[in-house]
Amino acid sequence: MSALNPGSVPRTISCAFSDEAIARQWVQALQKRLPPNIEAKLWQPDAPPADYAVAWHPSQGFLDSQPRLKALFVAGAGVDAVTALKRAPDCLLVRVEDAGMGLQMAQYVAYGALRFARGFDAYEAQAQRAQWRDHPRPDLADLPVGIMGVGVLGLTIAHSLQALGFQVHGWVRTPRGSQTVPISAGHDSLEDFLRATRILVCALPLTVETQQIINARHLSVLPRGSFVINVARGGHVDEPALIQALDSGHIAGALLDVCAIEPAPADHPFWTHPKIRLTPHIAASTLLDPSADQVVEKIMRLERGETISGVVQARGY
Ligand code: NAP
Ligand code: GLV
Predict the structure, then answer these.
(1) With contact defined as beta carbons under 8 Å apart, do 238 and 251 qualify?
(2) Are residue 23 and residue 158 in the same domain, yes or no?
(3) Is 240 in the same domain as 266?
(4) Are residues 115 and 261 in the same domain?
C-alpha cells in the first residue's frame, strides 16, 4: 500500500547530530522539501521510533532506539563511523554522493599538488629571508599523481588535476572498462601503481582492507622524493611510519587533512613536523542544501518502492 500511495502514509525522519544547531538546520532543510505526510524531527530519546534517520556519528544508543528504520542517511561521504554499529534489520545505510564535496576536494588536492610541484615551500622560506631567486620549474610529466580510490570524489579530483596539466592515474578495487583516467585495480597492482606515482593522493573509504594502507612498506615503494596527500581518513596512514619516511628524506612532504585521532592533540607530532601541513578535516564539508535534496529524493524513491544509489554494501563503502 505504502509503495503505491506514498503521499498519504505518515512518516517521520529523525535527525540525530551531537550539535543541536546542525540537527535543527537539517530538520528545516528537509521539512521544506518534504510533502505534508512526512515530518522531520530532532531526535529525542523518548520519541516514538522513526521511519528514516539522518545522522553524523550516531551512537549505538540512538540506533537501538530506532528498531524500524528503513534507511539511515549518513550526513557525509564516509560511513566508517557507522558500519560497525548494529542497526535495525533491513535498514539501508546510505551516504552522501558528492553534493558539492567533489569540487571542494579537488580544490584542496590541487592546492597541495601545486604547492609541492611548483616548490612554493622553498619560495616561502626564501621570502622570510627577502631572497629573490628562481628555481627551475619542474616538468609535471615527472610528477605523476596517483589517486588511491577513484570513486565519486577521486574522479573529480583526477579530472581537476588533469586540467592543471598533471598526469594522473588511479587505483581502485574493482577492474573497470576504459576511462578518462588510467586505472589499475586490486591488491596485486598496488605496488606497480605506487612505483609510477610521485604525488600520492588518498581518497579511499576506510574499511578493513584500507586501514593503514599508507604504511612503511608502501611508502618505501613510492619513488624517493614523493609527496603524500591524505583527504580520506587518518586510519589510512601508519603515522609513525610516515614520520620516519619523512625524517629519512624518502618522502619529501605531506599535506594531511585527517588524523588517526581527531581533533589531533596539541602535542601530536604532525603539528610541528617541518615537512607536514595538517588541516582540521576541512578538505570537503557536507553542504546542507544539495545533501538535503539528495536525502529527500531518495526517501521519495524508497516510498515509491524504487531503488536508490549510494547504499553502502557489505564491503563497507
Ligand atoms: P566512493 O565513491 O565510494 O569511492 C571509493 C573509491 O575507493 C572507489 O573507487 C573504490 O573502488 C575505492 N576502493 C575502496 N576500497 C578499495 C580497496 N580495498 N582497494 C582499492 N580501492 C578501493 O567514495 P567517495 O564518495 O569518493 O569518498 C571517499 C572517501 O573520502 C570517503 O569514504 C571519506 O572517508 C572521505 N572523505 C573525506 C572528507 C574530508 O573532508 N577529509 C570529505 C568527504 C569524504 P571501486 O571503484 O572499485 O569500488
Ligand atoms: C567527511 O569526512 C565525510 O566523510 O563526508
Answers:
(1) no
(2) no
(3) yes
(4) yes
Render pLDDT for 174-199 as a digit per residue (tens, 0 to 9): 999 878 999 999 999 999 999 999 99
- How is 168-203 classified by DSSP, letter by letter? EEEEESS--S--SS-EEESGGGHHHHHHT-SEEEE-
Residue owning the nearest CA to atom 41 of ligand 1: 231
> Which residue segment(s) compose the domain that 273 sits in?
101-278
Q: Is residue 226 part of a domain?
A: yes
Minimum-distance ligand 2 atom for the alpha carbon of 75: 5
The verdict on whether 95 is a catalytic residue reads no
Average pLDDT over residues 146-150: 98
Q: Are residues 196 and 241 in the same domain?
A: yes
Hey, which residues does 11 pair with through a beta bridge? 38
The domain total for the chain is 2
Q: For position 2, what pLDDT does the model report?
A: 43
Q: Does the annotation mark 281 as catalytic?
A: yes
All three cell numbers of 251? 618522502
Rounded to two decimals, the pTM is 0.97
Arithmetic mean of pLDDT, 151-177: 97
User: Which protein residue has the closest C-alpha to ligand 1 atom 30?
Assistant: 232
